[in-house]
C-alpha cells in the first residue's frame, strides 16, 4: 500500500468526539456520510501526550506537503499561541480519510494538564463522567480517560502509533501495558453481535466474552512505538539498540509481543513472539547538527510513513465495511465505558491511596 505525498482527500474532513465537548457521546453521524460500503480499508490511530508530535506524524502519513503554499494540514498542529496558553490542540477523535481508503484517527492528548484543568472542580471532583455516572476525583477520571482511549483504539484500529517525547518518559509504555491488561472482552468492529439490528442492548461482559470466544482469539491492533524530539546524544546507534531491546523486554509478556502465524503445512494458526516495531525521530531543531551518520528529522518522518503504510496489520475477525466499522466503533465505545474490568481496576486505584477521594 503506497500513499503518494500529494494524494487528494477522498472526502471532506470532519471531527467526532469521544469525550469533548459532549462527554460520553461517540459522534458518528457527521462522518458516516463520507464512508462507503467498501471493505478494503485500513484504520491507523495515534495516542500520546500533548506536544509529542502526534498530529505532525498523522499529517505525514496522510501525505500532506507542508511546502505547498496556502495549504492547511488535514490535522491542525500546535501553534505558538496554543503553547503559550498551555492548551491542547486536538479534541476527542478527529478522523480523516484518504483516496486510498486509509482512515486516520488523530486523538486528544493523554496525561494532559490542560485537559485535567478543564475537567476539575474546585473540590477536586471531575466534571466528566467516565464510568456510568459514578463521581470520581478528577485525577482518577483523567487517568481512566487515557486508559479508555487506549482500549478503544486497540479495538477499532489495525495499527496504533504510540508516541512519546524523548527517550526517558515511559508513561506511554506503562499505559499500553495497562491497556493490554484491561482490553479483554472488548470485541472488534466486525463482530456480528454489534452489527445485528437489535443489538442496542449489548449484554453483560460475560455475554460479550462468550460471543468473542465463538469468533476466536481476541483482537488487538498492532502497535508502533514512536519516540520523537530526540537529542543528539540519544540517536547514537548503540543507544537506540539498547532502547529497542528494553522495549521488547518490557512488552515480552503482553499481547503486543505476539503475532499470529499461519502454518503452511497443516493450515493451523499459531502465535509466536515478534519484535515490537519502534521508530525514533530526532528533534527538528537539532537535525542540522546530527551529521550524515544519523537520520535527519525529515528523513526519519518519511521512513516512518513508508514503513507504517507497508505494514500488514491484523485483520478483523470478519469482513466489515467502512460504514459498519464506524457504526460498530460507537457501540464498542459504549462497551469500553461500561466495562466491568475497567470499573474494577478503578476501584483498585481508589483504594490504593494514590488518588484523593
UniProtKB/TrEMBL annotation:
One Gene Ontology biological process: nuclear-transcribed mRNA catabolic process, nonsense-mediated decay
UniProt cross-references to Gene3D superfamilies, sorted A to Z: P-loop containing nucleotide triphosphate hydrolases
Family: Belongs to the SMG9 family.
Alphabetical list of InterPro entries matching this protein: P-loop_NTPase, SMG9
Top-rank taxon, per record: Eukaryota
Keywords of this entry: Nonsense-mediated mRNA decay
Entry protein name: Protein SMG9
Taxon lineage: Eukaryota, Viridiplantae, Streptophyta, Embryophyta, Tracheophyta
Amino acid at each position: 500500500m503506497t500513499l503518494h505525498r500529494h494524494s487528494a482527500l477522498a472526502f471532506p474532513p470532519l471531527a467526532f468526539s469521544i469525550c469533548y465537548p459532549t462527554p460520553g457521546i461517540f459522534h458518528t453521524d457527521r462522518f458516516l456520510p463520507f464512508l462507503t460500503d467498501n471493505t478494503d480499508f485500513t484504520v491507523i490511530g495515534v495516542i500520546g501526550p500533548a506536544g509529542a508530535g502526534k498530529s505532525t506524524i498523522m499529517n505525514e502519513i496522510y501525505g500532506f506537503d507542508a511546502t505547498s503554499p496556502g495549504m492547511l494540514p488535514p490535522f491542525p498542529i500546535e501553534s505558538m499561541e496554543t503553547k503559550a496558553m498551555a492548551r491542547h490542540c486536538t479534541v476527542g477523535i478527529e478522523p480523516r480519510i484518504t483516496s486510498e481508503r486509509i482512515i486516520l484517527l488523530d486523538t486528544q492528548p493523554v496525561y494532559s494538564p490542560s485537559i485535567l484543568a478543564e475537567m476539575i472542580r474546585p473540590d477536586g471532583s471531575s466534571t466528566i463522567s467516565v464510568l456510568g455516572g459514578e463521581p470520581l476525583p478528577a485525577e482518577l477520571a483523567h487517568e481512566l480517560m487515557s486508559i479508555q482511549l487506549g482500549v478503544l483504539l486497540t479495538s477499532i484500529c489495525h495499527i496504533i502509533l504510540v508516541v512519546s517525547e524523548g527517550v526517558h518518559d515511559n508513561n506511554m509504555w506503562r499505559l499500553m501495558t495497562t491497556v493490554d491488561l484491561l482490553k479483554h472482552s472488548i470485541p472488534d468492529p466486525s463482530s456480528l453481535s454489534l452489527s445485528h439490528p437489535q443489538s442496542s442492548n449489548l449484554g453483560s461482559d460475560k455475554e460479550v466474552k462468550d460471543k468473542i470466544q465463538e469468533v476466536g482469539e481476541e483482537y488487538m491492533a498492532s502497535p508502533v512505538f514512536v519516540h520523537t524530539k530526540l537529542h543528539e546524544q540519544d540517536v547514537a546507534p548503540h543507544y537506540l539498540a539498547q532502547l529497542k531491546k528494553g522495549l521488547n523486554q518490557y512488552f515480552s509478556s503482553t499481547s503486543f509481543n505476539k503475532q499470529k502465524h499461519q502454518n503452511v503445512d497443516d493450515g493451523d494458526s499459531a502465535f509466536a513472539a515478534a519484535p515490537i516495531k519502534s521508530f525514533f525521530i530526532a528533534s527538528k531543531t537539532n537535525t542540522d547538527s546530527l551529521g550524515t551518520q544519523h537520520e535527519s528529522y525529515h528523513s526519519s518522518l518519511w521512513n516512518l510513513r513508508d514503513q507504517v503504510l507497508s505494514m500488514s496489520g491484523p485483520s478483523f475477525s470478519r469482513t466489515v465495511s467502512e460504514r459498519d466499522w464506524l457504526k460498530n466503533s460507537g457501540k464498542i465505545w459504549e462497551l469500553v465505558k461500561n466495562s466491568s474490568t475497567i470499573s474494577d481496576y478503578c476501584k483498585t486505584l481508589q483504594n490504593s491511596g494514590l488518588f484523593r477521594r
